[in-house]
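Review form for a predicted model. The reviewer records the input and the model, then writes brief findings.
Reviewer: anonymous (R2)
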Amino acid sequence: EVQLVESGGGLVQPGGSLSVSCAASGLTFSSYAMSWVRQAPGKGLEWVSGINSGGGSTYYADSVKGRFTISRDNAKNTLYLQLNSLKTEDTAMYYCAVDYADHGYWGQGTQVTVSS
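Model under review:
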């Protein structure tokens, strides 16, 4: 069974930084592209960033480009997202996600709140 467990969220002031992680199990992590998506209060899901299986190619939504960095450690089956220069509009629940066997999986999410 595929399991994704996000951690590392919290409260941070505008302009601050935070790092979130996603521990994966139940799949050969190094074989799958991974993504981060988020959902702000009262809004729909927004794709944030993606990374290929080997980690050599990364992709970002325009809203976070230049501020967020996605990475992965295949030896640790872990996905990361470094969030810098945070804005109030980055406040959301952040989920890691994978398309495994034509089925989308995501974890329970980790809350990131940007507020002064």
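Findings: The chain is about 0% helix and 55% strand.
Further findings: The longest strand covers residues 92-100.
Recommendation: see findings above.
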